[in-house]
Design a protein that fits this description.
24% helix, alpha+beta, 9-stranded mixed beta sheet, single chain, 4-stranded antiparallel beta sheet, 17 strands
């Protein structure tokens, strides 16, 4: 039965997921395959969806034990629109750094999701934006106002487009790489050079679909470039400033893991383990205390610069490093000084 035939029987179905299996895909049950892509999904829910005819491969319903093969088009369709498309305005306080008729610059706090998605259908930045501003233009993914995004547990600056013209103008700047984006990150290890460039394609990991990996041969993923400078050294960790030349998903997190300097307390990429330092219990306890002070990846979008869509003026905004990162840095600073005494 085709998707069109299913739709005829059940009125209208909405696509909730669509992914093409890579050419190197090994045979894998479709329920396991989907669990690698859909965050917070349980295998039982995926199996139930398949049994109900909502999991399609190449437009045909399949059972949970169907083996996904290279180039299969795997989709999930349901009788209701995706929750992220059912946007509800919410009166959420926003830290607005700048606003005029064309753009808004927001300082996103740690823990706030930028846009609704699986498992996060309310309390997002977009929910707050549509309460604050009427008739926000949608981007190519139908997300109102968003020109770019940062991860839930990354803090810092985002620019929001308030008009269609501003959306097009800003999107082109990001595409042309003429924006300025500086991040501060705490990474594991003592980086050898004072500054450098990490270059390597970034794409979805072939082993863990919730991670991004670097493919230095360029045979997979998208071109990505991160420039960095050392700001301060703490023997076992380093504070670095990162300048993004491109803007790929998890770019800084994936690039620094690739060169052996995973972000401090980045759970998804293994940075929540003691990766550098001694094996003494006292040191491990110190690191655990740092994790408690900074219970997320140590990454902050500190500086954002772009050309104003209407005036042509280049605007640059800076945000303070959040308190959790400041407190963590102070702990490392004190620890380093005590080690030298």
């Amino acid at each position: 039965m085709s998707l069109e035939e299913i739709g005829a029987e059940n009125e209208e179905f909405y696509e909730h997921f669509n992914h093409v299996a890579p050419s190197g895909q090994a045979p894998l049950r479709v329920d396991k395959f989907l669990m690698n892509f859909i965050e917070n999904a349980t295998r039982n829910k995926i199996q139930q969806a398949a049994k109900a005819g909502n999991v399609l491969v190449n437009d045909k319903p399949v059972k949970p034990n169907y083996k996904v093969k290279p180039n299969d088009v795997v989709r999930i369709v349901l009788a209701h629109p995706p929750h992220e498309n059912l946007l509800v305005a919410e009166d959420i306080p926003l830290d607005i750094v700048f606003e005029d008729d064309d753009v808004m610059v927001v300082n996103k706090p740690v823990g706030m999701v930028v846009h609704p998605g699986h498992g996060n259908y309310s309390g997002t930045l977009v929910n707050g934006l549509i309460h604050h501003i009427e008739n926000l233009p949608a981007n190519s993914n139908e997300r109102p106002g968003l020109v770019h995004r940062i991860d839930k547990d990354t803090s810092g600056l985002l620019v929001v487009a308030k008009t269609e013209f501003a959306m097009a103008h800003l999107s082109k700047q990001f595409y042309d790489r003429t924006t300025e984006r500086l991040y501060y990150a705490i990474v594991w290890g003592n980086i050898d050079e004072e500054e450098g460039t990490i270059e390597g394609n970034i794409g979805r990991s072939l082993k863990n679909r919730l991670q991004m990996s670097v493919f230095p041969e360029g045979d997979f993923g998208k071109h990505a470039v991160t420039h960095y400078k050392v700001v301060e050294r703490f023997s076992y960790v380093t504070l670095v400033q990162c300048k993004l030349e491109t803007g790929r998903t998890h770019q800084i997190r994936a690039h620094f893991k690739h060169i052996g300097h995973t972000l401090f307390n980045d759970e998804r990429y293994g940075g929540n383990d003691v990766l550098k330092g001694t094996t003494f219990t006292k040191y491990k306890q110190f690191v655990d205390n740092c994790f408690k002070v900074l219970p997320r990846q140590a990454l902050h979008a500190k500086t954002l610069g772009f050309e104003h869509p209407t005036t042509g003026e280049f605007l640059r905004f800076n945000s303070e490093i959040p308190q959790d990162m400041v407190d963590c840095l102070e702990k490392w600073r004190s620890y380093t000084i005590n080690q030298k005494d």
